[in-house]
Write a structure and sequence with these properties.
Blueprint: H1 7-14, E1 19-23, E2 26-29, H2 30-45, E3 55-59, H3 64-75, E4 79-82, H4 89-98, E5 103-106, H5 111-115, E6 124-127, H6 128-132, E7 151-156, E8 166-170, H7 171-184, E9 192-195, H8 202-215, E10 218-221, H9 227-234, E11 241-244, H10 246-257, H11 261-272, E12 276-279, H12 286-296, E13 301-306, E14 310-314, E15 325-329, E16 334-338, E17 351-356, E18 363-364, H13 368-373, E19 375-376, E20 379-389, E21 392-398, E22 403-406, E23 409-412, H14 413-420, E24 426-436, E25 440-449, H15 457-467, E26 478-480, H16 493-498
Parallel strand pairs: 1-10, 3-4, 3-5, 5-6, 9-10, 9-11, 11-12, 12-13, 25-26
Antiparallel strand pairs: 1-2, 7-8, 8-18, 13-14, 14-15, 15-21, 16-17, 17-20, 19-20, 20-21, 22-23, 24-25
Length: 501
Amino acid sequence: MPRAELPLIARARQHASRAAIVAAEGAFTYQDLLEASGRVAGCLLDRRSDLAEARVAFLAPAGWHYVATQWGIWRAGGVAVPLATSHPPAELEHVIRDSEAEIVVAHPEFAETVRSLDAVKGVRLLRTDEALAQPRHPTPGTQAEVDEGRRAMIVYTSGTTGKPKGVVTTHGNLRAQVMSLVTAWEWTADDAILLVLPLHHVHGIVNVLTCALWAGARCEMLARFDANRVWSRLGGGDLTLFMAVPTIYHKLIAAWDTAPAERQRSWSAACARLRLMVSGSAALPAQTLERWKTISGHTLLERYGMTEIGMALSNPVRGRRRPGSVGTPLPGVEVRLVDEQGGVVGPGTAGEVEVRGPGVFLEYWRRPDATTAAFRDGWFRTGDMAVLEDGAYRLLGRSSVDIIKSGGYKISALEIEEVLRTYPAVAECAVVGVADPEWGEKICAAVELRQPMELSLAELQAWAKERLAPYKVPRALRCVEALPRNAMGKVTKPEVAALFR
């Protein structure tokens, strides 16, 4: 009697001869992926019949080894714990220890880095090339019988309010997240997508890679982002989808601006032939949206989600997409806005976003108190604030860092940032609230200047006075000219707030 298979694996068999992955290692079909992941599963099982939800941490760049390892873990009955190639050793140590990984798999490029970690002592350590080199038909079998209710993956949060927490999703959670997006964004086997996102977050893992492989589509993977190389592939004419974060679109715009006119025309024409381009994981500045529309002909589809829920809201594939809006609930997802007491609020009133549905995560790994606190009557409390306007949701920001309580008002830092970005000398900015005895919280802004332009605090305050009046911003707007970025080049609100203390 044949073994029961996960739907993702069973669907791959239906597309056996089609191209699945294109990466630095070559081009591979779905049959290639089935065989390779079977070899990895056999290596991981090592004569066992089932890993029984043992955690398997793996570190590999975006490419063939990553996908074969991920699928091999699932087929062996393990829980996949993706590690970030960009993280320093201390963060890798935390994830491996916290997840209690029993096996760690590393790409040859990162094998020595992993081997040097204290967390892997006493843990079985494998290289991806070794696992892929196993016999084609290991004994016993190439997969365990895995029910969809079992744990599939632990993805770690960004840790902005403490140590990163492990978000546990089941195979059923992943299926629900993927099917919702495949339906809403009209994925088919004829699609082809370029993946430029990191593969330790749901944006890259679920929205791009797993949706493509569920649909029988082709996923082309770049191990590292390079703006000119991305433009070259977008201009190739054979892609149908592209998904990225606002920072990537900003870098693509900068590369387009410096390209020769003939190349600009070629890139723009090819880009316009894609059927869908998506932006997410951070607020998309209105200027970036409009500039990208001018270059590519696309109004970027904005959506909203997070590690714990996958995607919850999305603008339509067909229909009007409004700047600043993240649309309406995706298929199978329920969304509501509530006040501080948990009462449901109506259109036009700001409230915290709560989400319910089969895609919502199972638990925070080994943190029952945090799991309990994250839910209210079966609804997941996102900590994000939004308002429902004309039937669509508009995000106001995180209640912990983006909602500033000043002078008796609740002010969205994201809205103020949008206004400040329209000042000619401002390339980027971040707004935070800092404790103040008079106002409760004082609105403070850090800006990054467009070179070689200059800016004084007095000039910005004078310009912003009338424009920020609708947002109830106190006059004591402060700014510095150095926007702080962490070691990964990102701007975080805690680091900005520290400037003003």
